[in-house]
Amino acid sequence: MSSHTEPFASLPVTPKPGLRRFHQARWDEEIVFELSRPGRRGVGVPAPDAPLVELPESVARRTPPALPELSQNQVVRHYLRLSQETLGADFNIDVGQGTCTMKYSPKVNDSLVRDPRVAALHPLQPESTVQGVLEIYWRLEQILKEISGMARVSLQPGAGSAAIYANIAMIRAYHASRGEGGQRDQVITTMFSHPSNAACAKVAGYEVITLMPDADGNPDIEALRAAVGPRTAALMITNPEDTGIFNPRIKEFVDLVHEAGGLACYDQANANGILGITRARDAGFDLCHFNLHKTFSTPHACGGPAAGACGVSAALVPFLPGPVVDRVENAGTAAGEPEVYTLTVPERSVGKIRPFLGVTPNVVRAYAWVMALGAEGLREVAETAVLNNNYLLAKVARIPGASVPWADRRRVEQVRYSWQQLTEETGVHSEEIGIRAADFGVHYWTSHHPYVVPEPFTLEPTESYSREDLDEYAAILAHVADEARKDPEFVRNAPYRQTVHRIDPASLDDPAQWSPSWRAYRRKHGGQPQA
Amino acid sequence: MAHPYIPNAGPETRAAMLAEIGAPDVAEFYRDIPAELRLDRPLDLPAPYTDEPGLVRHLHGLLARNTHPAELLSFLGHGCYHHHVPAVCDEVNGRGEFLTAYAGEPYEDHGRFQALFEYVSMMAELLEMDVVNVPVYDGYQATGTALRMAARRTGRSKVLVSGAIAADKLAKIRDYLTPDVEVHLAPVADSGEMGEVRLDDTFAALYLETPTVHGVVETRGRELAELAHGVGALLVVGTDPISLGVLAPPASYGADLVCGDIQSLGMHPQYGGGQAGFIASHDDERLVAEFPSRLFGIAPTAVPGEYGFGDVFYDRTSFALREEGKEWVGTAAALWGITAGVYLALMGPQGMREIGETVLARTRYAMRALAAAGAAVRHQEAVHFREFAVEVPDADALLADLHGRGILGGVRLGDREVLVCVTERHSIADIDTLAAAVKDALSALGGAE
C-alpha cells in the first residue's frame, strides 16, 4: 500500500517564496481583424422565409462592413485569451482601487440573474407579468430606505455618476419649483469628493465651488461659511472622504447649507464602513446616493453595467426619477393572496435618467446580497471593512518611504497614502510603484486628479479579504519600495511579468498619431506595429 | 462561524488584528462619528437567508411571480429588443475575469483594453467612422451627449430634433440639454419620415433618427446633411447598429456624429438592464476633443511589434479635469461593449447582412399580415426596419385581448396606436399567429361596439 505514496512523499518540498511568482497571461494575441479569413462565420442567422425587401439606393449599404470573418471556435478562443489577460477582482487581492469598494461579488447572485425570468424580461411587459421583479425593486427600496433613513429611493440610475446627476436634476427642479431656480446657481463640493460631483453640477448649469481640506484633513468649514449664501443650490459631499477620514462636523456643514436655503446631498460611494452605524438622513441630508456595484457587491464588469440608488427626504419625493415601484395597498385581500406592485411616476418627476426602470440584474444581485447578510451581517460587513482598513494601514505605515497624511486622524473605509518620502529619496513615482506591484499579481491605483496628496495611492480592503491577503498586499508594497531604493531604474522600467512591456503613451495624445480604432491605425500606420 | 463572504469575521481573527493595530476594539475606529449621528439600534431589515439554498429558494420564489418568458409570444420593442443572443456572448461576458475587472492598468488588464479596442474598431467598420467611444450608459445618454458635443463644437445653443422619436427619449434629451441647449422639434411628414425643416446659422445640429420610433427608415439623409452643413450645423444621426449590415451607414450620407444603443448586439433585454450607448465621429481633432467618454487606442511598447493600449486624449475628461472636463465620465456599460464586440466578431459582414435582410423581410411580411387582419398599418409606403405602428380602435383593449391569448402584441404608443416589433427570432408562423389573433381580437372588439 505504502509503495504508492512513497514517490510523492520523497519529492523535495521547496518552501514557497515570500512573494508570489506570478506572471500574467501572455498569449501575444492578434487583433481580431488579423485573424480574419474570407468566408468564415461564427454563428448562423435565420433565413428571411419571406420575399427580400428591395431597398432604395439612398438607404442601401453599398459595401459590406469590413468586419472580421472567424469561425465560432476562433472567436471563443480569442476572447477567452483576452479574458485571461485581464486581472479581474476574482483573481487578485483587489484592495488597490480605493474608493471603488472592490468587494467579492457572490456567484450565486450571478446565477440568479441568468434566469430567463430576469434575463428575458422585456421592460415594457404588462405589470401583471413582472410582479416578481417589481417586488424585488420594492423590497430593495425598503432596505435602502432603512439604511439611509430617507423617505424614498429610486433605483433607476445606471451607475454612481448617473445617480449624482439624478440628484442634481432633483435639486434643480426643487429650487425651480420654489421660484429660486435662477437665483441658486452654485453648487459646493469638496476636493476629496468624487470628481463627478463637480462635473455633473457643471453639466446641470451650476457654478462649482470646491472646498479644500483644512489642517486636520476635514473640508474647510470656514471656506464653506464664506461660500454659502443665497446663490447656494446644494452641497455635494462625500463622508468619509476619499482620504478615509470621517468629517465629525458633517452636521454643521449640513446646517450651514440649510440655513442659507440650500440642499445637502450625500455621495455615499464610501458607505461600506458605516452601514448600520450612521445614516444620511440622521445627519440632515436631503438627498444621498449609493453605488450598488460598490457597497452592495454587484460586479464592476470592466466598468459597468453598474447601478445607482438615489435616496431623498419627503420634500424631494415628488421630484424622484420615474417610475418608482409602489405596493398597492389592500390589493391582496384574502390571507395568502400576494401583494400587488405597480409602476408610478412621481408627480413632479425629473423624468427618466435612463430608459425603462433601471439596471435590473444589478438590483436583483444587490437585493440577494443584503438578504444573505441581514442587519447583523451588514454591521459585520461595516466593522470588518473598517478593521481590515486599519490593519492594512498599520502595516503600510511601517513601510519605509510610505506615509499617511493626517496620520493622527482615524480612518473608516479607505486610506489615501503617500509615497512622497520614497519619491524624494529614489525618484520613483507612485504610478511606477503601481506598475511594478502588478508584477506580483495585484492592482494598484493612485488617486483622482489633481493629486492633492503628493505621490498618492489609495487602498480599500473592504470586508472581503482575509488577514493573510492583507499581509501579502503589504508585503508586495514593502518589497517594491525596497526595490526602488536599491535599483530605481529597475522599478521604472517595469513591468516584467505582464502581458505587454512598458507602453509609450506619447502617440495617444498626438492627433496625427492617435489610433482610437483599427481603422484609424491602418490609415495612420499602415497596419504595421509602431516602432 | 464567519459569514462566507467575510473571512475575518471570527472573534479570534478580530482580536489578533486589533492587537496588531494596537486598538482596543473596532469602536475605536468610529470615534469621529458624533454620538448624535449614531444609529442606536440595529437596522430593521428582513431576516436573512444565511445558507445558499435558502437564499436561492427565496429568490426563486420571487422570480416565480414573473410570467415565464417562454409562455408568452412577445412583439415588444420600443428601445429594447429580443434579438437572438449567441451563446458565445454569454460565455464571454460571464467569465470572472471580465465580469469582475474594473479599472486596471493596460498591463494587468491588457485583455480588457484589447477587447474594448476591438469593440470600438468593429463598430467603426460598421459605421465607417474612425472614432467610437467606450460605451456610455444607454442610447438616451449617448444622444444627449452627442447633441451637447455638437453645441460645444459649433458654439451654438439650439438643436433641431426629429419629431419621430420616443417620448421618454425626447424628455431625457430636453432634461440633459438644460440649461445650455434649446431643443426644437422637426415635423414628421405623413410618410413617417422627417418633414420639411428650416435651419439657420443659430442651430448647432440637426438630429435625425433612423429607423424612427415607428420603424421608418429615413431616405433623405444626404439632403438633410447638406441642409445642416449649409448653415454650419452638424448632422447627428441616431441609429441601431444591427441595421447597418443592409442599411447605409449614416457617415456615407454625411453624418458628423452617430449615436444610439447597442443592446441589440448580444444583450438580453434583462428588464432594461441590457442597454449601452455609443457615440461615433470622424477622426477630427476638434470633435474628438468634445467626447466626455473614454477612447481607447493602440500604442507601441518597449518591444517592437507588440501592441499596447491606452487612453486617447485623456486630458479632456472629468477624471483629469473635474468640472473643467467635458461633461463627466464614470462607470457605465463597458461589459456590454465587450459583448457587442463578440457579437460582431461572430456575425461578420455576412451575418450582419443576413440579419438585416431577414428583419426587413419579416417586418414587411408582418405589416402585410396585420393589414390583412384588419389593422390600419401606418406609413405603409415607407421602408421599415423591425418596427411599425398600427392604428386600432382601442389599443388597451386590443393588447389586453392578445395578452389573454398569450401574446404581447406590441407597445402602446397612444390610445389608438400600437408599435409592433419583429426580429429574426420571430418565425413566419409566429407572425401568422399574431395576425390571426389580431383579426379575432379586432372583430371581437368591433362586435362589442
Distinctive features:
A: 531 residues, Aspartate Aminotransferase, domain 2, Aspartate Aminotransferase, domain 1, two-stranded antiparallel sheet, globular, B: 449 residues, alpha/beta, 3 domains, seven-stranded mixed β-sheet, four-stranded antiparallel β-sheet, 15 strands
Can you walk through the features of this model?
The complex is a heterodimer of chains A (531) and B (449). Chain A has 531 residues and is of the alpha/beta class. Chain A folds into 2 domains: 261 residues, Type I PLP-dependent aspartate aminotransferase-like (Major domain) (Aspartate Aminotransferase, domain 2, 3-Layer(aba) Sandwich); 118 residues, Alpha-Beta Complex (Aspartate Aminotransferase, domain 1). Chain A contains 16 helices and 11 strands. With 449 residues, chain B is an alpha/beta fold. Chain B has 3 domains: 47 residues, no CATH class; 117 residues, Aspartate Aminotransferase, domain 1 (Alpha-Beta Complex); 256 residues, Aspartate Aminotransferase, domain 2. In chain B, the strands form 4 sheets. A 7-stranded mixed beta sheet of chain B has the order 2-8-7-6-5-3-4, with helices on both faces. In chain B, a hairpin with a 2-residue loop joins strand 14 and strand 15. The radius of gyration of chain B is 26 Å and the shape is globular. The termini of chain B are far apart. The model of chain B has no long low-confidence stretch (mean pLDDT 96). The interface between A and B is large, with 219 and 209 residues.
